[in-house]
Fold this sequence. Notes:
rod-shaped; c-terminal domain of poly(a) binding protein; mainly alpha
Amino acid sequence: xxxxxxxxxxxRRHKAVMKAVRxxxxxxxxxxxxxxxxxxxxxxxxxxxRKLRKRDMRRLWITRINAAAHLHGLSYSxxxxxxxxxxxxxxxxxxxxLSVREPAAFASLAQAAQTALATA
Length: 120
């Protein structure tokens, strides 16, 4: 069997890594071995932070809903409980968006939650 040299394959692999670390600083974007390690860490951080972003967004939505609910005399937990009792199925992302962009629509939801809490 003929001897196979790694020239083409290695060059292609190095090119892929160096292209991926183009925005990194210093040796991380010029030296292959440092760049490879930098890329491994960057990919690990990206994976972990995709999960954290979901958590952070939910916290932001809840904070916005809580602030808007307090304007209507409700706490966040009572507001959500009232919506459940009124059988209004709107997720937190939409509620937060309504509280910022459509205060009148959010006010009607708050009113629905208050009446559902009063009857329960």
